[in-house]
Prior knowledge:
177 residues; mainly alpha; transmembrane; membrane
Amino acid sequence: MNYLTKMKGGGKCPPRVKVGYIAWSWLGALLGIAAVAGLHYGWLADRGLVMIIGSFGASAVLIYGATNSPLAQPRNLVGGHLVSALVGVACYQLLPEQPALASALAVATAIALMQLTGTLHPPGGATALIAVIGGEEIHALGFLYALVPAASGALIMLLVALLVNNLAPGRKYPEYW
Length: 177
C-alpha cells in the first residue's frame, strides 16, 4: 500500500452514542472530577499539595465515556498515571535546565514504559509532561507527585467509575483488571 494512500482512511465511523449512555458518562465525569477537585481545593491546596492535574480530564473521557476501551481499564488508568509520573519527575530532575529535552524524553519514555508494562493510558503522556512543565508547585513535590496527585487521584476516579458505571443497566466496568 502506498504511504500516502494509508492516510485516506476508509473505515466507517462508529455509530452515535445513545443519550442514556451520554447521561451516565456525564454523571461519572461530574462526580469523579468533583471528588478529586473537592479534595484539592477543600483540603490539600492549603497544605502545598496538588490533587488535580489536567490529565485527569482526559482520563475522565476514557473511564466514563469509553468504558470498554482497553485504554480505560483500571490497570491502564492507575498504572499509566503512576509510571508516567515517575518518568516525568525523573526526566525533570535529570534535565532541569533543558525543559524542551526533558519534556520530549518524559513523554516518549512514558509511552514506551506504559507499552512495556501493559498500562498504556493516553492521559499518562500528559501526566509525564506536567511533571516537567508544571511549575514550582509540581516540582516541589518531587517523586511524591507520583503518589499525590497521580496515583491517588486516579484511584479516586476509579472508585467513582466502579460505582457509577455499574449503576447503568447494560453498562459494565471494568472489562478486566
